[in-house]
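haha ok so turns out i had the wrong file open the whole time. this is the CORRECT one, sorry everyone. sequence first:
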Amino acid sequence: MNKSAMEVVRAARSEKHITGHEIRKVLFPDFFELHGDRLSGDDPAIVGGIATFHGKAVTVITTSRGHGIKERMEKHFGQPEPSGYRKALRLIKNAAKFHRPVLLFVDTAGAYPGKSAEENGQGQAIAQNLLEIGQVKTPVITVMYGEGGSGGALALACGDEVWMMEDSIFSVLSPEGFSSILWKDSSKVEKAAEMMKLTPNDLLELKIIEGIIDEPNDHTTVLKNIDQVLTTELAKLQQLSDDELIQRRYNRFRKF
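then structure:
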């Protein structure tokens, strides 16, 4: 069944879809979390560390919305602060040093917009990720598994490939925000969602993402589908030399 853009948005925000915790627990059972940005803090909205994937060392980074109201408030409902982006960049640069592939899993409405984030350099942290992740000499694959909002998501999706779950979105801002800015009327949110081209099918047609991962209701099958895609794509990327990898990444972004 073909879903409307707004139906995809609602599905991406649903509590029923896969979580970062499930992904780490099933696909990376030996995941070892690493903390801190070595500058100002340790944002719990970003959970990252090292693991093995089919016997090979990888770096895994996921956004986390938390469980329970207290934890969710601490994590700003999955919206990272500057220390979160700096932590992700630190882990990615460390992975490049040892030539470990990086696997990122993103579900965030966007970067945390609070006063503390602005005071600590939110814009600079995002910009630094865009600049430096694009230059690391190791494969970097991002999977959007829920919401992919604005620069908050883009700062974790600037590597070699971006894949989207069937019920996920990737957009410059929310349909509600788009509707309010363009028409000063939030009731036109469904029209906004259609215009924004934020669904996986839209983005695949525009060649902004590499592919769509099937997302049935059974989470076990969803995880197997993610595993299959990552296994196939990593095998391709790891055959490239460092120079070939960087040139391929450069060409990917230049076509936009």
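The beta strands are 32-34, 46-53, 56-63, 102-108, 140-148, 161-165, 211-213.
again sry for the mixup
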